[in-house]
Amino acid sequence: MEVPPFPKPEGLEAAMALQRTLAQRVILSGSLEGKKRLAALDASHKRGKPLVAVALLYHLEKGPLFVAKGLVPEEALFPYVPGFLSFREAPAYLEALKALPEAPEVLLVDGQGIAHPRGLGIASHLGVHLDLPSIGVAKRLLFGRLEGPLPQEAGSAVRLLSPEGRPIGYAYRSRTGVKPLYVSPGHRVGLEEALAFVKRLPTRFRLPEPLRLAHLEAGRALAALD
DNA sequence: GCGACAG
DNA sequence: ATCTTGTCGC
After folding, report:
1. CA–C1' span, A123 to B1, in Å?
2. DSSP for A94-125?
3. Going edge to edge, which strands form the sheet with A63-72?
4. CATH number of A12-223: 3.30.300.20, 3.30.2170.10, 3.10.180.10, 3.90.550.10?
5. Nucleotides of C under 7 A from a protein CB
6. Residue A87's pLDDT is what?
7. How does pLDDT run across A21-73, given as a tens digit for each residue?
């Protein structure tokens, strides 16, 4: 698919300013009805090696269709700073997306959507950059708090609230007894619609299958480098 | 000053 | 994310 160049900010000040600008372009409405082709994005990295990103094209009815990879040399990587993950990982994701035979209708990203200090987690950043609907699925919380207790039963969810009390996503129990996932809209999708979309993905273990497979592929690709 | 802190 | 030993549980 076609991918616009991704500007690299000089430092955290510039990165923060860019986040504030792009956050204004995030659209928090839209349904994903009828959208069946998604790209699941995950990355893997080891010191002294390039960052490996995987974009796994997945069809809701046909399953996995294609695995594309993107590499960024360690020397070229933005440092990891909580709140600035997209500047580190997005360039590798975009390389992987370039290698897809067709554009996905939805991006499913390992990380936050709008549940972020400035409203622009990596899922939102990629969604705005590519003008695609996107959803963030994170394994840990970065920003916000749960509205109440989250039941142990698979399928239960409670809203994620910003410090001001605005809903920014959900804590979601994908399987009974597992730690919750944190689902937040990235771009061009509503809060409830984002959760509904994730809920209808096949989930054998904690992570929805598309993301779990992307994670496995990224790990394999990293191990295969040497 | 203290705690929190995606991947 | 990775590193890292044993350990608990399905």
Report:
1. 34
2. HHHHHT-SS--SEEEEES-SS-STTS--HHHH
3. A63-72, A51-59, A37-44, A106-110, A134-138, A181-187, A167-172, A157-161, A145-146
4. 3.30.2170.10
5. 1-3
6. 98
7. 999 999 999 999 999 999 999 999 999 999 999 999 999 999 999 999 999 99
